[in-house]
Amino acid sequence: MKKLVLTGAAGRLGSYLREPLTKMCDELVSTDRVDDIGTLYPGESYVQADLSSLDAMLEVIKGADMVVHFGAIGDEAPWDDILQSNIIGAYNVWEAAYRCGVKRVVYASSVHAVGMHLKTDTIGLDAPHRPDTYYGLAKCFCEDLASLYWDKRGVESVCMRIFSCAQATNARSIGTWLSYDDLIHLVERSIDSPVVGFTVVYGISNNDRAVVDNSKAGHLGYRPKDNAEVFAKAVFADTPPLDNKDLANLCIGGPFATVELGNSGVAALGVVDDRKET
């Protein structure tokens, strides 16, 4: 491909995608709201832009083959913040992609679009939306937006329902972990698969205790290699007995299932900010 666009390039997950994406195209345009994202990789440029501006997205996306959309707030937040960044921002990305003739949007959706389902149900990709927060509700909107733009305007999308893409430091993550290497593999397959139409896939590693079924996304060729079971003994040894009536332990959304709307869910997860520095 000639040009890829990566939104959310300054974020933790975006930091791991920048270098591998430069190897899939002649030009990678990374974008975010910050002033600077550090040293650029060969073939990469940086454009400061706000997702809430359609004009800005049109300018950034012009001439792109595909957009990898990781921008927006990555946690539960007050409604007005979610509305501007995660909902209006997503509309601007898909609308700009349509107007600019982009083939496909690869989107960082989230488990929180279905976060109120129980772990023990081992849901598949046909499970109905069941968001656990405003953040999860925005992911539902974006998945439906992606479906609409495929059905009515021919813009392909892969919506990756990302689970625990961080260090496996708590009991929940033993079933929900997504390693950075598997994240990169999933994004690569979402880009290089010849035809995807509208596809939803769970972003989860090859965990023995996985809480969802990804079999209906086999056409992407996503074959995760890593398994959180290697961390299980140490993590469980440091974990007190869990309350089996607490929705934070029962639901696949974890603590997002119990936080008050508008309040952070990430704060309860102990996520380590180990973003890749350049």
Automatic annotation (TrEMBL):
This is Uronate dehydrogenase. One of its GO terms (molecular function) is oxidoreductase activity. PANTHER family: 4-EPIMERASE, PUTATIVE (AFU_ORTHOLOGUE AFUA_7G00360)-RELATED (PTHR43103:SF5), NUCLEOSIDE-DIPHOSPHATE-SUGAR EPIMERASE (PTHR43103). Pfam families: Epimerase (PF01370). Belongs to the NAD(P)-dependent epimerase/dehydratase family. Residues 5-164 form the NAD-dependent epimerase/dehydratase domain. Keywords: NAD, Oxidoreductase. The keyword Oxidoreductase applies. It comes from the Bacteria.
